[in-house]
């Protein structure tokens, strides 16, 4: 440009205040962005919307379950609600939550890279997600689906007359969104690390994302092809899973769980990564047994592929395969235990700050521990015969998925919120919300363990009267939980306008993401950083950062 | 979509002011070497996803093959084995021309690359043509599963549903494979155009190489499908 | 007080229930104990080492690395103990006692149909005698269901393409829940019923009322109705194998494989006769797929079963081999037949 126009004068700002948010304006600059940070924001908005929708279904179900009679909803509506709650929360919230929002935003920052390896594919992932979500919404409006999120055959192929095809197609598409995100992360971690950033200098969040991405890359295609066969069977009326035509309905369960058990690790491994980051930052200490924690993520990813049939102990597998899968399931519990004990040990002689992210993570450790140990109950085959398909299982996976993954997501969101938006949220409100979520969660789901052992089967629209007291407790807890989730929505939005500016490193945390401005500039770093320190090297890094801040 | 499969790098105008940069170097990479490595690794990972994708159907195929060996043998006997053999040869030749295209791109021979890509496209089209002929024939013979399945096996009518199951896998597997071929052919057209424009050379031939990886993968899938779907009837003894 | 309408622990009403509850109690104590201990340690550490000034760093101290080994090995050993106990209990739950009474169950959207060997039929209610092992053989007419007796601590999925079995022995009389535990469509939560455990005398009385002849005898009528008896004669002259004494024996097939003649084998031989041809016979039997209902199929199977237990002089197709391990054939994933059934059947 030879001469400045009026337009230029108004918008050319000092370099430091130009960041990824203020770089360009207008809806199109967001919808066609290739910047990983902006795509993370797009994901943040979309998964929040779907979380609210999935939560709505949960709340209505809990209200229905206040009384033993099915009096609020019809059976069909109730069945559709729990199906949609499951599908939305798993495929459209939990699986993309930490990877697609926090991972997208932070991975290049933590690696000292300008962007993910394939920015266009990253944008494509979001569009696939949106296409699938729109299909899902269309199906909800036009009648829903009632198969349960597990789509068990032959119910889904022959008997259900709801929109099974549309929903499985949506799940198929969102699966590709997940695959492409995983692929992008793997290549980025392999090829885009800053000079000096060796594998064992990586933050544990990156290790967790690496393990997650492997699972996304290798498990999701099996679900995709299983759903293709299901759709083919439904449309053409062939008998891949139809016993009358020589098919085997159990084959569907094997193939479905071959993906869907590892999918549990797609949801929980990133949560463990967030936990490591937050524990390190709020104890100002290197995570005890860094290498064990790093390798345990890979161990979980690997062993996670070998335990799928523990969902099928009463479904019709032989006694010996049941024993093998029980044995392997206990194996996969070991690396999870390693992590919990290592986080605990990190607290020893640390400098512990109980700010909001740390509160969430301490809650995460507690709830994940309960979710994890109740998994041991379910892996004991003789006990599983009684508790499988009951509320015990419902409580178990909500402890892992909501108590684990969602708590960690909330922790990560609060921890990196200043980095993402450049603003601080009101600390006291945030602590209140964290405590409400913790209390409400336990009140909601702990009674369900008892309900399950008493024998209340899951997916029951009406139930025996002796189960009512515990169900009322559960519903009461759910209302507290709903308030606990609504609060952050309010104060985080509030903070966008009224929050105190955060500065580059409000927590005094170590990590490449804290060395750049908040919000980060479009290119993340003005110069590619050269890494000469280990992860969480607090003494050295605090010294170095003190010097740079004084400049 | 095409760019996506390849992680391919189209022109990045925003770095044009840095004249020392190659026009196809994307801004977030340090140099062409890093870009090439990243794209190649990305393609390998994509192919590992694809292996699991095909692997899912193949696993189901094998389970039922073990359960219903007779039906599988009868089903395979309905295929014209020599058409499958011709297609196998055609695809192997196309893999050779694809490899030669990569070599030409690497050596900076612009028209050599174009001709080899055209040859690859030609053989790919022959494959699809033969496949279409087979599909039409199967349809006419009532070998499409579902309502259109009118195939009879008087020797043992109880086997008909299982033969239909075989044909289900036949259509699923070859259909998925053909879909990959069609996508590959589309990509080839785009690559012919780009090679003709002279986008590739010794410095920058990564996309052609990645296209080659994809094409070879699709070939290899066929090399598994051919015996599984056409030849197993010979291996079956009562 | 109000504990009667607000139970926290389910009623124990079967022989395996105390065993399941014992494992449950053990798990609660060990897992609960370790969890509470961990929370306590976290709580103490978080308070004791809380940050007192803004710039306070952690102490430069790392716990010994040996801890790492400790919390890999110790949990693993505890887990293995749980695994062994769980598997042992599972074997107990799966192994059917030899003198079990046979009852047949059919799951159907959305009801449970039960048939007693004497021919009594009932829907959504099951009468059983106390103190006697009951073996339930079951199949589904449509989707997958799951038959669940919480008071007995047993459940099993009910599949549309094969028989599964479960057993229990009630230890007290009374009325206990039956639930469907596998989601099966609109009225899934209505697919419930009651099991009435009665004194054996009362059970006999109940059985005596209104039966249409035993299940096996109804099966015998069907056997004639479908003209099975024209080929399956009682001497070796028929075109089909002799069925007398067949049940529970090991059959050699035309491809020299062997198979145990259990319910699933008999069922398959009716529906898909060509799947397994007995050595020395021609594949001439037509299929009965789609012609015989699940109820009738159970009657036929019950009849063939009864032929097998009649100790006749007819030589079985082959003497049973006690070393047979074909159950849970690796060729059919998920098609496992609980092997203890073989053990129960082989002398």
How does this structure look, described?
The complex is a heterotrimer of chains A (551), B (238) and C (347). Chain A is mostly helical and 551 residues long. Chain A has one domain: Cytochrome c oxidase-like, subunit I domain (Cytochrome C Oxidase, Chain A, Up-down Bundle). Chain A has 17 helices and no strands. Chain A is globular and about 70 Å long. In chain A, 65% of the residues are buried. By secondary structure, chain B is mostly helical. Chain B has helices at 2-6, 32-67, 69-77, 81-107, 110-140, 160-196, 206-235. Chain B is elongated. In chain C, the strands form three sheets. Chain C has a five-stranded mixed sheet with strand order 3-2-1-5-8, covered by helices on one side. Chain C has a five-stranded mixed sheet with strand order 4-10-9-6-7. In chain C, helix 4 (215-225) packs across helix 6 (294-309) and helix 5 crosses helix 6 (294-309). Chain C is elongated, with a radius of gyration of 26 Å. Chains in contact: A-B, A-C, B-C. Chains B and C meet through helix 2 of B and loops of C.
Helix and strand layout, with pairings?
The complex is a heterotrimer of chains A (551), B (238) and C (347).
Chain A: H1 6-11, H2 27-31, H3 36-64, H4 75-111, H5 119-141, H6 155-159, H7 164-191, H8 204-236, H9 249-283, H10 290-303, H11 319-346, H12 356-379, H13 381-387, H14 391-421, H15 427-454, H16 468-498, H17 538-550
Chain B: H1 2-6, H2 32-67, H3 69-77, H4 81-107, H5 110-140, H6 160-196, H7 206-235
Chain C: H1 17-48, H2 66-94, E1 101-108, E2 111-116, E3 121-123, E4 125-129, E5 133-140, E6 145-149, E7 154-158, E8 164-169, E9 174-180, E10 193-198, H3 200-208, H4 215-225, E11 250-252, E12 258-260, H5 263-271, H6 294-309, H7 340-345
Parallel strand pairs in C: 1-5, 4-10
Antiparallel strand pairs in C: 1-2, 2-3, 5-8, 6-7, 6-9, 9-10, 11-12
Helix pairs in contact in C: 1-2, 4-6, 5-6
């Amino acid at each position: 440009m030879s001469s400045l126009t009026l337009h230029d004068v108004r918008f050319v700002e000092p370099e430091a205040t130009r960041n990824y948010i203020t770089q360009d304006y207008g809806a199109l600059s967001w919808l066609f962005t290739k910047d990983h940070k902006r795509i993370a924001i797009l994901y943040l908005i979309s998964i929040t919307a779907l979380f609210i929708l999935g939560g709505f279904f949960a709340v209505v179900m809990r209200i229905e379950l206040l009384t033993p009679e099915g009096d609020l909803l019809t059976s069909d509506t109730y069945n559709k609600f729990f199906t949609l709650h499951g599908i939305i929360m798993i495929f459209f919230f939990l699986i993309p939550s930490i990877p697609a929002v926090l991972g997208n935003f932070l991975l290049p920052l933590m690696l000292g890279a300008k962007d993910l390896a394939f920015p266009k594919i990253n944008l494509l992932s979001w569009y696939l997600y949106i296409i699938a979500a729109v299909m899902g919404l269309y199906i909800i409006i036009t009648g829903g689906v009632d198969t349960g999120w597990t789509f068990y055959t032959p119910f889904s192929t022959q008997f259900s007359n709801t929109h099974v095809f549309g929903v499985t197609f949506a799940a198929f598409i969102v699966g590709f969104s997940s695959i492409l995100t995983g692929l992008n992360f793997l290549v980025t971690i392999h090829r885009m690390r800053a000079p000096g950033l060796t594998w064992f200098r990586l933050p544990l969040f990156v290790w967790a994302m690496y393990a997650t991405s492997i699972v996304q890359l290798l498990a999701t295609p099996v679900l995709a092809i299983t759903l293709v066969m299901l759709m083919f069977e439904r449309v053409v009326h062939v008998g891949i899973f139809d016993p009358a035509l020589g098919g085997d309905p159990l084959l569907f369960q094997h193939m479905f769980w071959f993906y869907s058990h590892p999918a549990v690790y797609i949801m929980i491994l990133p949560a463990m990564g967030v936990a490591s980051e937050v524990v390190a930052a709020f104890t100002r200490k290197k995570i005890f047994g860094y290498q064990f924690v790093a390798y345990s993520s890979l161990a979980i990813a690997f062993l996670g592929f070998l335990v799928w049939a523990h969902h099928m102990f009463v479904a019709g597998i032989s006694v010996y395969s049941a024993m093998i899968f029980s044995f392997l399931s206990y194996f996969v519990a070991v690396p999870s235990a390693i992590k919990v004990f290592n986080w605990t040990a990190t607290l020893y002689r640390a400098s512990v700050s109980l700010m909001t992210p740390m509160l969430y993570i301490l809650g995460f450790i507690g709830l994940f521990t309960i979710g994890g140990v109740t998994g041991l109950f379910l892996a004991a085959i003789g006990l599983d015969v009684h508790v499988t398909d009951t509320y015990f299982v419902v409580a178990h996976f909500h402890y892992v998925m909501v108590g684990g993954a969602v708590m960690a997501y909330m922790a990560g969101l609060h921890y990196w919120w200043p980095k993402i938006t450049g603003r601080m949220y009101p600390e006291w409100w945030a602590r209140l919300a964290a405590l409400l979520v913790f209390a409400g969660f336990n009140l909601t789901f702990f009674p369900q363990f008892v309900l399950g052992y008493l024998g209340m089967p899951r997916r029951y629209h009406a139930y025996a009267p002796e189960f009512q007291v515990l169900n009322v407790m559960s519903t009461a807890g759910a209302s507290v939980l709903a308030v606990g989730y609504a609060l952050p929505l309010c104060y985080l939005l509030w903070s966008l306008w009224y929050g105190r500016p955060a500065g580059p490193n409000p927590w005094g945390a170590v990590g490449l993401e804290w060395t750049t401005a908040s919000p980060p500039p479009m290119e993340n770093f003005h110069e590619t950083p050269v890494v000469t320190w280990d992860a969480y090297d607090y003494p050295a890094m605090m010294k170095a950062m003190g010097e740079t801040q004084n400049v | 979509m095409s760019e996506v499969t390849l992680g391919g790098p189209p022109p990045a105008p925003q770095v044009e002011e840095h004249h020392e940069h190659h026009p196809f170097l994307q801004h977030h990479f340090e140099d062409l070497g890093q870009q090439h490595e990243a794209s190649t690794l990305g393609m390998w990972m994509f192919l590992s996803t694809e292996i699991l994708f095909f692997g899912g159907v193949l696993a189901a195929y094998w389970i039922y093959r073990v359960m219903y060996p007779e039906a599988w043998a009868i089903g395979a006997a309905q295929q014209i084995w020599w058409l499958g053999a011709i297609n196998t040869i055609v695809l192997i030749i196309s893999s050779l021309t694809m490899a030669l295209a990569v070599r030409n791109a690497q050596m900076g021979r612009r028209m050599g690359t174009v001709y080899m890509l055209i040859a690859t496209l030609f053989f790919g089209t022959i494959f699809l043509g033969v496949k279409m002929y087979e599909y039409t024939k199967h349809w006419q013979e009532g070998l499409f599963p579902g309502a259109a399945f009118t195939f009879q096996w008087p020797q043992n009518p109880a086997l008909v549903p299982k033969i239909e199951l075989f044909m289900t896998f036949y259509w699923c597997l070859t259909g998925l494979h053909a879909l990959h071929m069609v996508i590959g052919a589309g990509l080839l057209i785009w690559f012919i155009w780009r090679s003709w424009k002279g986008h590739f050379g010794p410095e920058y031939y990564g996309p052609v190489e990645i296209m080659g990886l994809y094409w070879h993968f699709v070939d290899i899938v066929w090399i598994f499908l051919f015996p599984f779907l056409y030849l197993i009837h010979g291996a079956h003894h009562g | 007080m109000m504990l009667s309408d607000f139970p926290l622990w389910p009623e124990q009403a079967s022989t395996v229930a105390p065993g399941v509850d014992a494992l449950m109690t053990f798990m609660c104590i060990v897992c609960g104990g370790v969890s509470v201990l961990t929370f306590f340690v976290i709580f103490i550490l978080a308070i004791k080492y809380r940050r007192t000034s803004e710039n306070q760093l952690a102490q430069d101290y790392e716990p010994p690395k040996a801890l790492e080994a400790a919390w890999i090995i110790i949990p693993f050993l505890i887990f293995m103990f749980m695994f062994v106990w769980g598997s042992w209990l599972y074997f107990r739950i799966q192994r059917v006692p030899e003198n079990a009474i046979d009852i047949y169950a059919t799951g159907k959207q959305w009801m449970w149909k039960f048939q007693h060997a004497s021919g009594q039929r009932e829907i959504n209610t099951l009468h059983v005698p106390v103190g006697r092992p009951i073996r339930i053989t079951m199949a589904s007419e449509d989707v997958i269901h799951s038959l669940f007796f919480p008071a007995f601590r047993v459940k099993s999925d009910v599949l549309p393409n094969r028989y599964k079995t479960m057993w229990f022995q009630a230890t007290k009389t009374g009325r206990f829940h039956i639930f469907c535990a596998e989601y099966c469509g609109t009225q899934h939560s209505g697919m419930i019923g009651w099991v009435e455990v009665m004194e054996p005398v009362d059970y006999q009385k109940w059985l005596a009322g209104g039966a249409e002849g035993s299940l096996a005898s109804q099966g015998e009528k069907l056997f004639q109705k479908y003209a099975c008896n024209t080929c399956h004669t009682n001497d070796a002259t028929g075109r089909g194998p002799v069925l007398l004494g067949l049940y529970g024996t090991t059959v050699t097939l035309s491809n020299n494989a062997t198979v145990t003649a259990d319910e699933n084998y008999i069922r398959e031989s009716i529906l898909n006769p060509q799947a397994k041809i007995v050595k020395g016979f021609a594949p001439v039997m037509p299929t009965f797929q789609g012609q015989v209902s699940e109820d009738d199929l159970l009657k036929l199977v019950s009849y063939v079963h009864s032929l097998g237990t009649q100790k006749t002089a007819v030589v079985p197709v082959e003497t049973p081999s006690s070393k047979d391990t074909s159950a849970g054939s690796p060729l059919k994933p998920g098609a496992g037949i609980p092997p203890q059934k073989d053990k129960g059947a082989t002398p």
